[in-house]
Specification:
It is built from two helices and five strands, in the order αβββββα. The strands form two sheets. It has a three-stranded antiparallel sheet, with no helix packed on it. A two-stranded antiparallel ribbon has the order 1-2. The protein starts with a helix and ends in an 11-residue tail after the last helix.
């Protein structure tokens, strides 16, 4: 008898929780007509893109990668090889820019640096020397 008195309220609580969860999950939020920075501006503009390809001309001569840039922009870049740098033997310098404006997207070359507080390491590789290609 005591078990029945405990089980019935527990089942009722579980059923109410399931019903409440179903109710709240079934309520779909209506999308806002405003974005995070206010209402959208009047005219919608379409941006057209083109593919800019970058070739590894010093290596095996294949396409290294491509990226999408606006169709009225220009792009240039290259892959360079530094065979004395086993940590990063290849690096690139790429840029895409708007010839009619000031906008530019630029990937700069990678440069690795190393630091140590080990006295033996500091004697073997003083500041300005290269360790595995890194400064």
């Amino acid at each position: 008898m005591k078990k029945t008195l405990i089980v019935i309220p527990a089942v009722i609580v579980i059923l109410v929780a399931i019903a409440a969860g179903y109710y709240f999950l079934s309520q779909q939020a209506q999308p806002s007509q405003e974005g995070p920075y206010g209402p959208p501006s009047g005219e919608a503009t379409t941006v057209k893109y083109k593919t800019a390809s970058f070739t590894d001309s010093q290596g095996i001569g294949t396409k290294a990668f491509t990226m999408l840039i606006p169709s009225d922009w220009q792009a240039e870049g290259t892959i360079r090889w530094a065979l004395d740098n086993p940590a990063m033997p290849a690096y690139g310098d790429f840029r895409a820019w708007n010839p009619n404006g000031h906008e530019e997207f630029h990937f700069f070359e990678n440069q690795a640096f190393i630091s140590s507080d080990n006295p033996l390491f500091q004697q073997t590789f003083p500041p300005g020397s290269r360790y595995m290609g890194a400064l």
